Every structure is written in structure tokens, then in C-alpha cells.
Amino acid sequence: MSSLLDHAICGIGARLSFVSDPQRRPSRFRVHRFTIVITALALLTTGVLAWTAALVNDHNETRLLRLKVAETGAVLQAAIPSVSTPLSSAAEIAQDSNGGSAGFDRYLSSFVGPKKTFAFAALWSRDGSRQLAMIGTPAPGTAAVITVLVRQASSKPGLNVKAHLAGPDRVLQYAYASPSFPSGPIVYAESPLPPKPRIQPTTGTPFSDLRFALYLGRRASPSTLLEVNTDGLGSRTSSVVVPFGDQALTVVAASNGSLAGGLSSSLWWIVAIAGGLLSLGAGGVAERLLRRRMAAEALTGAVQELLDRQQGISRSLQQAMVPPPPHGPAYLEVASRYVPGVNELEVGGDWFDVIELDENRTFVSIGDVSGRGISAGTVMASLRSAMAAFVSEGHAPGALLSRLGRLLDTGDTGRFATVCCLVVDRRSDTAVVASAGHLPALVVSAGTAHYLEGPVGPPIGTGAMDYAEQIFDLPRGATLLLFTDGLVERKGETIDDGLGRLSYVAARTSGTVDEVLTAITSELASDLITDDTAVLGVRLIHDDNG
Amino acid sequence: MTTTDDSAAPGASFAVEPGDGEVVVSAIGEVDLDTVREFQAAVDSALEGAPARLIFELGQTSFMDSSGLAVLVMASNRAKVSIRNPSTMVRRVVEISGLAETLGLPE
Predict the structure, then answer these.
(1) ipTM
(2) Which residues from chain B sit within 8 angstroms of residue A436, using beta carbons?
């Protein structure tokens, strides 16, 4: 029996170590597909969000650039009168003085000079043939162009604008012919342009945070480039066209840095990094939860297995402890029943035994260790073996119980055992019985049943030493029934009620001993009884001689 | 002074009443495998003061099986035990188990 326990304990230990042995866990770097899916979904979402942030930022930058450039256009438009108004006023003054240039000189001089609006101004006849007056010096190499432009103005009144961009002296040229005075003189003026189109970015002006290129004309082309303050404009540009006399100024601009702000432009990678980290975190959490669940499931599985094993062990122990159906010699008919109690996990302490002493006598016993559980079973097994040993030494029932009494101490173990043992003798058709606290044996014969009334000593374990014996008749064909209290003990009654019921049922049985037991146990064994029930029946068989 | 242990299963309740050189332990209800542990605990606490006599008041004990009897037998090793006013059920079980003398069952 101990080897059975040892085997079970080793098996249980092996099972537990499997669950907790790190070497046998799956590698910690292999993740479950579920985790990969979760992480991928989270990363995908992050990607979409980051992309959206980038899109929104892009959209904002474009919008803001457009606004800025439109604003620039408005500023530019507001500045144009600073050129056109002096010219038209000068033309009017010259017209009033009827060819005299003094008024013209006086008025326009304040606009001509270094750092002034114009570098040079002149008054011409309306037909463009004669220069009437001059303020300042014209830029070199412009003589031919001046004539062309003046002639153009004479046929096209209003402000005519041209740009002289060849050579190092780049100038904007204006020729104004008054539309309201068809014969009035033409005013010519020049504004300096930087020697090369590329200028340094300036600060403190509306154009400070823009990179721009300024063209004369409606189209941006290298030949009409007036000024540019950057080496490249990039892909995101906006342009505005501002009418300027008979021409227009075109501004193509790009932003200098982020117009929407650092946060807006950084948002996409902030989202990407934060989202990426969160995704990995989520994946990590998912993986961890998954592993925990699997560990819990493994543990549950292990626990369930342990439970099954324990139940298996209990059942095996119970099987081991169930007294095997005893056989008697040819002259003794023997039958038995063992009905385990309701609680299968608890082993009981009932036993019975039939041992042939010699060709005429047979020893019969029944015993019941109090309580349940493994220790009740082990006490029972010890007592049963000891009893078999004493029987083989030839002790009579009373002496046998005395010896048995020395083996168990209720004070130590908290258990006692009731035992009834007898020796049946076929020569005299009698039996000698001794009882240690056990329920009385029942003799069933010819439709009657009566309990043996004899001396009953205290149960084994209480320290009693003397057990009296009694001899009684056991006629051929009569059935002697030994049983444990599970057969007759019920709640709500006294023991006598149960004994009376058994006697009543037994008296009405007939047939073989086995059939008698079937009838009795089917009537009396109850599903509600937690206690084991053991029943043993013996009968001296009729000889052929009668 | 009476201490009552009502935390027992619904089947039984036990009371321990110390007196002059003796302790009375009462058991009310069914003493079986479900309640025997509480019974043993009550008896253990009764025996703590090492009284000379232990009296079991079992008038309202409606049921007692061998596990309950084992508690009584163990107590009889540690003090002089007697049963007072046993219910019929208890009386018969003690008598039929041959424990009438050991447990001091009244005539």
C-alpha cells in the first residue's frame, strides 16, 4: 500500500515540475500569432493616424502659404501708387505749365535720387521725339530702350512698365502718358533693381518669412525675374499676380520654415513614435496576458489531474481495503456484501474475514473501525492482519480480542474498533462468540430471526482486557448474519428501530445465503448513508445424511 | 459562565460550562462526521483546565455514531467521564457498544 502512495506522489511531483520547469516552457521570444495580429493592427492604426497628421499639416501649410502670399500681394498692390502717383502728378504739373519744365523739376526732384523711388526721371514730348527735361542720370545702355518705351506710351496712355535686365545696371522703366490729356507730355522714370536677381533675405519686412521670386509679367520665367531671395523655392509654392501699369508683378513664394508651427509639422512622427511604442506595449501586454492564461490553464489542468489522481488513489485504496469476498470450506456456505459509503473520497474501516481453522472449525469475524479516512483504513488493515495472526496461533475468540485490545489505544489514535468473532464447529453445530462492542449477530432460521444476547465487552482500544465468550446453537440451514452499523443506523431513530427492521426483513428471506443478503441489502441499504456497510452471512450446510 | 460554540454545522451545537472541579459539556443535535470536529474541539477546551470530572449532558443529542463515541472514549482517558441524562438514542448506542461502564452511563 505504501508503494502505491509513493508511486502516486512521484507522479504528482513529476507533473508539478513539468508545469514550473522553465526549460520546458516555450522560448520566451516566440510570440503567439494573436499577439502579432494585435501589434500589427495597432501599428497599422498608428500608421494611419501619423499619415493623417502629416496630411493635415500639409494641407494647413498650403493654406497658410496661400494666405500669406495673398497678403503679400495686397501689400505689393498698396505700394504701387508710390510709383504711379508721382508720375501721374508730374505729368499733370508739366501739362499745366504748358511745356515749361520748372514745375516738373521742382515736383519730381524730391522723388529722384539714391535711396529714393526713382534714380532718374525725364520729361518727353507726347510724340516721343524730344526730351524736354531731365532729373538725374539714366542708367547706362538704356538710351535705345527709353525711346522705345516713350514711343509706346505715346500710343498707349497710362503707365507703361518695362524692365531692363541685361547687364549690371538693371532697372525698372516707367513711361507715363496721361489718358485725360492726349497731348500732354510723357513722364519717364527709372527705378533701380539689384545688379543681380539674387538678393539676401531681409528681416523686418512682410516678406521676411517667405522665400520668393518677383517677376515682371504674368508668367514666371527666368528672363523676367526681377528679384529672388533664395536659391530654390521647393515644391510647395503659391503665387500672386498684381497688376502694375500695363504689366503685372508676379510673386512666387514658398514658406521659410513651418507656417503651421513646430507642433503641427512634428505631429506625424510624434504620433508614429508614440503609437509605435504603444503598439509594442499593447503587444507585450497581450502576449503576457496570453501566457498567463495559458499558465493558468496548464495549472488548472495540472490541478485537475492531481484531483483525478487523488480520487484514483482513494478508489484504489478503497479497492485494496475492501475485504475480498471470503470463501468458506465446503461445509460452510458464505456470502458477503460491502456497500461503500456515499463519500467516495473517504475510505472506510469495515472488514470481515472467514478463516478455516481445521477440517471441522472455521473462524468468522467482522470489524468496524470508527470514523473514516485513510487512517481508519490503515487501522483496520492492521487489526485484520493481527487477527489472522492470532487465529493461526490457535487463540479462542475471547483471548483473541484481549490480544487485539493491546494493539490499539483510542487515547493515541482517537479511534476504536468494534469486533465480533466466532468459531463455528460443524461437529456440534455450535458457535463460540466473543464481542468487543459490536452489534449482535442475527440468527435466521425457519422464518424467524433472533439476535444473540451475550456479553459484549468494550470496543478494542479502550483498554479492556477481558472478553467473555458465549456458546450458542447454529443448526444446519440456519443463516448467521454479521453486519456493521451502516445497515441499521438511521438518523431520527434509536439503534433498536434499525435492529428490529433488520430482524423483520431477515426473517422473511429464503434461499441461498447470497439471496438472503441480496434481499436484505436491497431493503435496508440506503443511498443516504455515509457510513460503509459490511454484511457477512454464513450457513452450515446440510449433509447428505440430513 | 457558559461559552457556546454556535459556529458548528447546522446539525449540532455544543456548550462548555465549567463548574467546581468538574466541567459539563452539552451536545444538542446530531453528532456525526460533519459535526464531530466541533464536538472534539468543545471537549478539548473543557479538558484544558484538567478537571477531575467531565460530565456529558446528552439529553438533547438526537444522534451519535461511532465517531462521537470515540470522542467520549478519548475523554475517558483524560478525566473521569460520566453521561448525564442521556437521550434514548444515545443510551442504546452506548449500551450496545459495551461502553456503559467506561463512559459512566447512569442506570
Answers:
(1) 0.86
(2) 98
Report the pLDDT value the prediction gives residue A25, as an integer from 0 to 100: 53
pLDDT of residue A312: 82
pLDDT in tens, A357-403: 999 999 999 999 987 777 788 888 899 999 999 999 999 999 999 99
Q: In a mutagenesis test of the A interface, which of B73, B88, B92, B93 is the best target, namely the one with the most A β-carbons within 10 Å?
A: B73
B70–A496: do the CB atoms touch at under 8 Å? Answer: no
**Residues A424-448: pLDDT tens digits?**
999 999 999 999 999 999 999 989 9
- Other C-beta atoms closer than 10 Å to the C-beta of A346 total 19
- Residue A445 buriedness (CB in 10 A; 0-12 / 13-18 / 19+): middle
Sign (positive or negative) of CA dihedral A14, A16, A17, A22: positive
Question: Mean pLDDT across the stretch A165-174?
Answer: 86
Q: Which residue shows C-alpha cell 524730344?
A: A130
Determine if residue B100 is left, alpha or beta; phi over 0 gives left, psi from -120 to 50 gives alpha, anything else beta. alpha
Predicted pLDDT at A42: 92
CA distance A71 to A209: 12
Q: What are the Cα distances from residue A264, in Å, to A57, A334, B105?
A: 6, 99, 98
Q: Strand pairing of A361-369 and A417-425?
A: antiparallel
Contact B106, B86 (CB under 8 A): yes
Contact A491 B69 (CB under 8 A): no
Residue B2 has pLDDT above 70, yes or no: no
Give the 3-state secondary structure percentages of chain B, helix then strand then coil, rounded to 5: 35, 30, 35
Number of neighbouring beta carbons within 10 Å of residue A226:
20
Query: Measured between CB atoms, does A414 come within 8 Å of chain B?
Result: yes
Across the interface, do A496 and B92 touch by the CB < 8 Å criterion? yes
pLDDT at A303: 93
Q: Do A462 and B76 touch (CB under 8 A)?
A: yes
How far apart CA A127 and CA A78 sit, in angstroms, is: 31
Per-residue model confidence (pLDDT) at position A176: 93
- What is the residue type of A300? T
Contacts with A489 from chain B: Cβ below 8 Å: 65
Minimal C-alpha gap between B74 and chain A (Å): 5
C-beta atoms of A372 and B33 within 8 A: yes
Contact state of A456 with B88 under an 8 Å Cβ cutoff: no
3-state DSSP helix/strand/coil % of chain A, to nearest 5: 40, 25, 35
Is residue A353 within 8 A of residue A388, CB to CB? The reply is yes
Interface of B with A (CB under 8 A): 30, 32-33, 36, 62-63, 65-67, 69-71, 73-74, 76-78, 88-89, 92-93, 96-99, 101-102
The nearest CA of chain B is from the CA of A298 a distance in Å of 34
Alpha-carbon gap, residue A132 to A103, rounded angstroms: 12
- Which of A96-105, A200-209, A467-476 holds the top average pLDDT? A467-476
Distance from CA of B40 to the nearest CA of A (A): 10
Smallest Cβ–Cβ distance between B102 and the set A418, A456, A462 belongs to A462
Whether A339 contacts A327, CB under 8 Å: no
Does residue A30 sit in helix, strand or coil? coil
Query: Over pLDDT 70: what percentage of chain B?
Result: 91
Could you tell me where the DSSP H helices lie in A24-134? 33-79, 81-96, 102-109
Phi-psi category of residue A496: left, alpha or beta, with phi > 0 → left and psi -120 to 50 → alpha: alpha
